[in-house]
């Protein structure tokens, strides 16, 4: 595994951990703090946390996954058609018993 893969992996793990901590604070801690608290400006309104944000992320995530699968399927279809089709079967042909 290359050094760049390790750096990218660590960056993704760090970003995931930061997002988890932010969302956890937003959902579990912010409802119990006063509106004028110094942390309040760093978080959107709480109704975004329960319904709107997860719904938007679900739609975007499913769209990206479907697009990725579609692109992979189209590329694999082009490779098969450019390769001349399926290879011929090897070995003796089965005989029919009459």
From TrEMBL:
Record's keyword terms, sorted: Endoplasmic reticulum, Membrane, Transmembrane, Transmembrane helix
Biochemical pathway: Protein modification; protein glycosylation
Subcellular location: Endoplasmic reticulum membrane
GO BP terms, alphabetized: dolichol phosphate mannose biosynthetic process; GPI anchor biosynthetic process
Matches recorded under Pfam families: DPM2 (PF07297)
GO molecular function, one term: enzyme regulator activity
Keyword Membrane: yes
Highest taxon, organism lineage: Eukaryota
Alphabetical list of InterPro entries matching this protein: DPM2
Presence of the UniProt keyword Transcription regulation in the record: no
Transmembrane segments: 7-28, 48-72
Region (Disordered): 77-98
Record's bilayer topology term: Multi-pass membrane protein
One Gene Ontology term, aspect cellular component: dolichol-phosphate-mannose synthase complex
Its biological purpose: Regulatory subunit of the dolichol-phosphate mannose (DPM) synthase complex; essential for the ER localization.
Family: Belongs to the DPM2 family.
Assembly mode: Component of the dolichol-phosphate mannose (DPM) synthase complex.
Protein name: Dolichol phosphate-mannose biosynthesis regulatory protein
Organism: Cafeteria roenbergensis
């Amino acid at each position: 595994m290359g050094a760049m893969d390790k750096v990218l992996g660590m960056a993704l793990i760090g970003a995931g951990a930061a997002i988890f901590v932010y969302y956890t604070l937003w959902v579990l801690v912010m409802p119990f703090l006063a509106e004028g608290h110094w942390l309040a400006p760093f978080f959107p309104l709480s109704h975004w946390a329960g319904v709107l944000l997860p719904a938007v992320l679900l739609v975007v995530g499913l769209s990206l996954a479907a697009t990725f699968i579609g692109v992979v399927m189209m590329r694999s279809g082009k490779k098969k058609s450019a390769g001349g089709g399926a290879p011929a079967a090897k070995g003796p042909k089965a005989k029919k018993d009459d």
